[in-house]
Amino acid sequence: MEWKGRRQSDNIEDRRGDPSGGGNPFGRGGGFSFPSGGGVGRRGGGLSIGTIIFLVVIYLIFKAMGIDLIQVMDGGGSTGGGGYTQSESSSQAPANDEMTAFVRTVLAETEDTWHGIFQSQGRDYEEPRLVLFSGQTQSACGFASAATGPFYCPGDHKVYLDTAFFQQLSDQFGASGDFAEAYVVAHEVGHHVQNLLGILPKFNQARQRMSEADANKMSVRVELQADCFAGIWGKFTQQKGILEAGDLEEALNAAQQIGDDTLQKRSQGYVVPESFNHGTSAQRMRWFKRGFDSGQLSACDTFSNPI
Fold it and tell me: Which of 13, 45, 120, 121 stands 20 to 30 A from 36 (CA)?
């Protein structure tokens, strides 16, 4: 992938080196994650009852002293829960290392792609922000660690990426290459597109009334559509002449390596289909390729078509 020298996005929050992990400790669940080898599925943040009671007590003590901790944690003017308060290091410009430059470039390419698609439909595309973190961080969807894997949080419209994941993608999953890494970013941005189109809000509302098995089945369709959207981005990238020989194969290999069936076979030696919530390797490859071949949103209807 010929990415060097291209436009880089400024929609980056670099939280690496932030010892606090950032953010309001009263998080909410509901993020959409990329499998990281520690199990498959969506990961939601949460706190124990004891921890919540402790935090409430601390809050009341400081409140009695005239200090509003919520206001401090939300930066003094933030609305809604889960706001991120930048530390001194994270408020600076993103680091200029090669990995950061690559992520910023891929994010910029997704911005160009989706701006064009939304504009063709008479809509405005709201660009997401991408948070780089190391080890752990906080989002509006709850606390996240490296084990969570890359994920998108609908609550704050941000993509979260631990900087060590790309190495894990290569070493643990056997999915190396810059376009494999770009596929990960494009998949999470695909969830953001779903959020803007109203797909994620409908799913989150509907799954509250579903059994776990039915919610898993619907989650598979959500994830496969994000793969298809990533494929659409790949198509537009190819049309720009950025792709090199073997790039498509890198993305398809990544999709294969993180299928639910492949991950479960690797981790436990057998598969449990009713627990799938991202899709099989074959499904993930097929829907990425479908988006790549068509370049059309209409080709990515995983809800009306067999998957």
Answer: 13
* Per-residue confidence band for 30, with pLDDT thresholds at 50, 70 and 90: low
Inter-residue contact 36 to 147 (CB < 8 Å): yes
Report pLDDT digits (tens) over 161-214: 998 888 888 888 888 899 999 999 999 999 999 999 999 999 989 988 999 989
With a CB cutoff of 8 Å and minimum separation 6, the contacts of 117 are 125, 232, 297
Which pLDDT score is estimated for 302?
Answer: 96
3-state secondary structure the chain: CCCCCCCCCCCEEECCCCCCCCCCCCCCCCCEECCCCCCCCCCCCCCCHHHHHHHHHHHHHHHHCCCCHHHHHCCCCCCCCCCCCCCCCCCCCCCCCHHHHHHHHHHHHHHHHHHHHHHHCCCCCCCCEEEEECCEEEECCEEEEHHHCCEEECCCCEEEEECCHHHHHHHCCCCCCHHHHHHHHHHHHHHHHHHHCCHHHHHHHHHHHCCHHHHHHHHHHHHHHHHHHHHHHHHHHHHCCCCCCCHHHHHHHHHHHCCHHHHHHHHHCCCCHHHCCCCCHHHHHHHHHHHHHHCCHHHHCCCCCCC
Tell me the pLDDT tens digit for each residue of 290-303: 999 999 999 999 99
pTM for the whole thing?
0.77
pLDDT band per the 50, 70, 90 thresholds, residue 36: low
Dig out the tokens for 96 from the structure. Answer: 């200029």
